[in-house]
Amino acid sequence: MAQETIFSKIIRKEIPSDMVYQDDLVTAFRDISPQAPTHILIIPNKLIPTINDVTAQDEQVLGRLFTVAAKLAAQEGIAHDGYRLIINCNEHGGQEVFHLHMHLLGGRKLGRMLAR
Ligand code: AMP
Fold first, then answer.
1. Which is the CATH superfamily of the domain at 6-106?
2. What is the mean pLDDT of residues 25-31?
3. I need a surface site. Which of 27, 54, 70, 82 has the fewest CB within 10 A?
4. Which of 32, 88, 99, 102 to mutate to test the pocket of ligand 1 (most atoms within 8 A of CB)?
């Protein structure tokens, strides 16, 4: 069994967060340490620790991450100028919380995708 993280408590509203969206499959809330004017995390309600753990059964929820990202980008007023979606995986990807999450970042020019 995968170990729950703080994100499961956020989904169940057991701890506070700046939640901006929730439905039957996904939850979105503002990152506690924003790296851009808009920095929202969009996560499956179901605990999937990393991208390595996704299965064909998860395709609906993974698709929902993208449709919600597009909706929130429009709501935030960053859709036209553009934004970046990031999903980190394990140590080399820089993943710190082992509950799969998509970062939605925008509101300024984000520069190169990777530091050189
Ligand atoms: P990652 O490095 O991809 O695992 O990103 C984890 C992200 O979760 C970081 O950007 C953190 O700032 C963010 N984070 C950790 N705890 C919380 C929390 N309680 N509420 C909102 N964001 C959080």
1. HIT-like (3.30.428.10)
2. 98
3. 82
4. 32
Any residues with Cβ below 6 Å from ligand 1, and which? 6, 17, 29, 31-33, 41, 88, 94-97
- Residues 6+ away with beta carbon under 8 Å from 25: 44, 45, 46, 60, 61, 64
Give which of 94, 104, 116, 115 is closest to 38, Cα–Cα. 104
46-105: per-residue pLDDT in tens?
Answer: 999 999 999 999 999 999 999 999 999 999 999 999 999 999 999 999 999 999 999 999
What's the pTM value of the predicted model, to 2 decimals?
Answer: 0.97
